[in-house]
């Protein structure tokens, strides 16, 4: 069927008739003077590579702490099977120097330990807390059993708070756990009070379970080879888990008394 020519649209009155004719003809998009292949594939745009950022230059740690910094990017070794750099450290201070090379150390000094390592008594946590009230609670817990940081050491499995104070990811635990394990090899603890499931996990998956709180576990330090030392580890409750729960607070106090009795 041949469509009749469109009506003249030279006047305003003829415009609706011309539009009706175009609709009847099946026009649904505007056209230009140059024909366009509407069914052809859209041209692909070349990908522009993102500019590569230079590796950050390590600097000395800042003395102004931030409450919730982001965890540093994990170190990238040329060979994924290469030994962890912590294994080359021969003193606890060398481990601190290793952590000081991470970009996060510019904003917040890493927490590996605080207090007396030579006491061989550890209070082990999973990470420093963004909420300072948790640290204050740990100080009071220790004071409740007549201890202070001159007779015990606060040791952290991760050296920096997690972003948003969230749970540590498996990747960061895998990358930083060798640091605290090396610390235990260089300065072996005798007794460990592990606050929280993530801290207790160093003694094995069984120690991580909630039902394991208040039970003693053996933590083999060094990977299980001959001559490795052992520490006795007692899982307990972290202050962030207690919150306003009176039952958990009572459990934590009972664990503290067990720990204090073992110290003698």
Summarize the structure.
With 264 residues, this protein is of the alpha/beta class. Helices cover 30% and strands 11% of the residues.
Would you write up a description of this structure?
This protein is α/β, with parallel strands linked by helices and about 260 residues long. Helix content is about 30%, strand content about 10%. It is built from eight helices and six strands, in the order ααββαβαβααββαα. Strands 1-3-2-4-6-5 form a six-stranded mixed β-sheet. The longest helix is centred in the C-terminal third of the chain and has 18 residues, at about 245-264.
Question: Which structural traits does this protein have?
Answer:
single chain; Uracil-DNA Glycosylase, subunit E; 30% helix; 6 strands; 6-stranded mixed beta sheet; elongated; 264 residues; alpha/beta; 8 helices
Please tally the helical runs, counting DSSP H or I stretches of 4 or more residues: 8
- Strand arrangement within the widest β-sheet reads 1-3-2-4-6-5
Dominant shape = elongated
CATH classification class of the domain at 110-263: Alpha Beta
Mean pLDDT figure = 80
Tell me about the largest β-sheet.
6 strands, mixed
Task: Annotate the secondary structure layout.
Elements: H1 15-24, H2 92-99, E1 113-115, E2 121-125, H3 132-144, E3 153-156, H4 170-186, E4 191-195, H5 197-200, H6 205-208, E5 217-221, E6 229-236, H7 239-242, H8 246-263
